[in-house]
Structure formats: structure tokens, C-alpha cells
Write a structure and sequence with these properties.
The protein has 340 residues and is α+β, with helices and mostly antiparallel strands. It has helices at 17-32, 38-59, 91-95, 109-115, 187-202, 208-218, 311-322; strands at residues 9-14, 62-71, 74-83, 117-123, 129-135, 149-154, 164-171, 174-182, 225-233, 238-244, 248-253, 256-259, 265-266, 270-271, 277-280, 286-290, 329-335. The protein has 2 domains: 9-135, Histidine kinase-like ATPase, C-terminal domain (Heat Shock Protein 90); 149-335, PPM-type phosphatase domain (Phosphatase 2c, domain 1), CATH 3.60.40. It contains 7 helices and 17 strands. A 5-stranded antiparallel beta sheet has the order 1-2-3-5-4, with helices on both faces. Helix 1 (17-32) runs antiparallel to helix 2, helix 2 (38-59) runs antiparallel to helix 4 (109-115) and helix 5 packs across helix 6 (208-218). The structure holds manganese (II) ion. Manganese (II) ion (MN) binds at residues 181, 291-293, 327-328.
């Protein structure tokens, strides 16, 4: 399989000006691992500083989430700026270069668009702002995303490692999407999650229930995990789903949402039944999967228009507003189709 999405990610809290500098440093550090050329690295630093400053100036606090992304074997960096500030009244006017409401929310978006790719903004007055963009090496022409996705995976605050994990593996007309939540949190949960992901990578050609069986066997020496695999066939508009334990998953499209079924149990320890379920996955619809660090009672209707935007904005909204705050969290959104 090719096109493994990397789990390499940075999350930086911004609550003062030093947070903006820290975000610039931390994202530069991440970018160094993908060897951006000097021009692209400079533009990334500029863009992160601009996005981070906007968060601090207009919302007082928020977060920058950056991760390594891969497309056609090129590596780039995706940045999402997340705040719960006053929001932007007119996003499209703000995106126009030279828009003259300097100092108001959104005033830097034109500048941001000049130095980044695929800039997307979701904002509503009173509902905060979510900004997403990509930066790629200058020498590469990177094709449009065939299946757009966004994911945030973060450790419980106070922990050094994350007991959740995820992977997206693409190849030969199918996509394997896997989310795992190692029991509890901390190093032992992280070890279980890591073993689960390695097992999925080794078994990615198999069917969904075989993948879950393999994970169950591999996790026996660990403390165990909840996990689910969604085996997508985008062209046939199908999703075969198989899960054990508390991973929430649904497919949403045209205003309707369908939850997918996992059986109870703990992989590695107690599994009564491994069963595949098949669901329609129409073009344009969104797969959303998350661990129980995210509360289950969210509703995308609270974010008008977000369902048709880049999935990274969807995962950012759920992360911002539905984080229970007492566990590791993973939230992943993937569209059958491109970005916006
Ligand atoms: Mn959990």
C-alpha cells in the first residue's frame, strides 16, 4: 500500500504572544522533518505567525495544530488554527486581498492566502474561527486531493504520550481507515495503540474482520484497546466497517447521518463477536470516527455549512467543542472526494 498518512503532528496552545512564537518554532521543527525548501519554509513560518497572531489578537486564546501530509509521495505540512473568539462576519470579503478592515478578525486572510495552498476558513459571528491551509515544497506540483481528510490526535493533558492512534492506508481502489484507543492512557495505552497500528499496516490487504482478528491476537500481551476499521471503496461508494469497543463512527451526507455498529469488548482480552457491517459511502459524504475522548452528542448542524467544507475543519470543530478533557482524543473526518 502507498500513501500512508503520517501521524506526525504538533499542537501548540496560544494564550499570549510567546505562544505565537512557540507555534512558529514548533511548526518549523516539524517542517524540518519533511525537508521543505527554504522559500516554502519561510512562507510556512510567515503563515503560522499570521494565523497564530490572529488567534491571539481576536480570540485571546486558541490552538495551532500542524501535521505532516503526503500526496503523490510529496510531503507537506497542514496547519489548522482553532479559536472560539468573536468570529468573522464576512469571510469571503476578508479573503480578498487588500480588504480594508485592518485590525478586525479576518484582516490577515488575504496575506495568508498568498503564501499557502488550499486556504479554507469556517467562521460565524460568536462561534469562533477555524482556518486551514497547506504548505508544500516549491519544486513539487502536488495534485488535488482525491480523498480529503483531517485528523487530530492528542494525549490527555499532563501525559507525554498519546494512548490513541490512527492510520489511513490507500491503495488499489480501497482505503483502510483505522482508529484505536489503548485502554486508559499513558505509556501502556500508547504501546497497545502502536502495536495495533503496526498490525493493521501488515494486514492492510485483508478484509475488515480479518484485520480486527489480527489486532485482537497482537494485543494479547498488552493492556488492550478499543478499535475500529472502516474499509472504504470510494468508487463503489461502499464502506465495510468492523469495530470492537468504544470508537464512534458515522457516515454523513445530504443532511442525514448514519451511525455504524461496533460490538462490545476489549481487543486483546475479551471479544465475543467480530462482525462486519456494510454501509453506503456516497460521493461527497463524510466518514467521521472518534475515540471516547470526544463526547458523542455533537451535531454538525451547530456549524452551518461545515459539512461541505474541508474535513480538517470538521475534525477541528469537534476537537475544539466536544473534547471531554479527561482522556486521549482522536477525531478523524474523511470525504469520499476532494477538499471543498
Ligand atoms: Mn479513551
Amino acid at each position: 500500500m502507498s500513501g500512508t498518512s503520517s501521524a506526525r503532528q504538533r499542537i501548540i496552545d496560544i494564550s499570549d504572544a510567546s505562544g505565537v512564537a512557540e507555534a512558529r518554532r514548533s511548526v518549523a521543527d516539524l517542517a524540518a522533518t519533511v525537508q521543505l525548501d527554504e522559500v516554502a519554509a519561510g512562507e510556512l513560518a510567515l503563515a503560522v505567525t499570521e494565523a497564530g497572531s490572529n488567534v491571539f489578537k481576536h480570540a485571546g486564546r486558541g490552538r495551532i495544530v500542524a501535521r505532516v501530509i503526503e500526496r503523490s509521495s510529496a510531503l507537506g505540512v497542514e496547519v489548522v488554527a482553532i479559536d472560539k473568539g468573536p468570529g468573522i462576519a464576512n469571510v469571503s470579503a476578508s479573503m480578498r486581498d487588500g480588504h480594508s478592515t485592518s485590525g478586525t478578525p479576518g484582516s490577515g486572510l488575504g496575506a495568508l492566502r498568498r503564501v499557502t495552498s488550499d486556504l479554507e476558513v469556517w467562521s460565524r459571528p460568536g462561534a469562533g474561527t477555524l482556518v486551514r491551509f497547506e504548505v508544500w515544497p516549491k519544486a513539487r506540483s502536488v495534485p488535488a486531493e482525491a480523498l480529503a481528510s483531517g485528523v487530530i490526535c492528542a494525549e490527555k493533558s499532563g501525559e507525554d504520550v498519546c494512548g490513541d492512534g490512527w492510520t489511513v492506508l490507500q491503495g488499489r481502489g480501497r482505503v483502510v481507515v483505522f482508529v484505536v484507543d489503548g485502554l486508559g492512557h499513558g505509556p501502556e495505552a500508547a504501546a497497545a495503540a502502536r502495536i495495533a497500528i503496526e498490525t493493521v499496516e501488515r494486514n492492510a490487504q485483508r478484509n475488515a474482520s480479518e484485520i480486527i482478528d489480527a489486532v485482537h491476537s497482537a494485543l494479547r500481551p498488552t493492556r488492550g484497546a478499543a478499535a475500529a476499521v472502516a474499509l472504504l471503496q470510494p468508487e463503489s461508494e461502499l464502506c465495510v466497517y468492523c469495530g470492537i469497543g468504544n470508537i464512534a463512527a458515522s457516515i454523513r451526507g445530504a443532511g442525514a447521518s448514519r451511525s455504524m455498529v461496533s460490538h462490545n469488548g476489549t481487543l486483546g482480552h475479551q471479544v465475543r463477536k467480530v462482525q462486519e457491517f456494510q454501509y453506503p459511502f456516497p460521493k461527497g459524504s463524510l466518514l467521521i470516527m472518534h475515540s471516547d475522548g470526544i463526547a458523542t452528542h455533537w451535531d454538525l448542524a451547530a456549524y452551518p455549512g461545515i459539512e461541505s467544507r474541508h474535513p480538517a475543519l470538521v475534525s477541528a470543530a469537534l476537537y475544539r467543542d466536544h473534547n471531554r478533557g479527561r482522556d486521549d482524543i482522536t477525531v478523524l473526518a474523511l470525504r469520499n472526494g476532494g477538499g471543498a
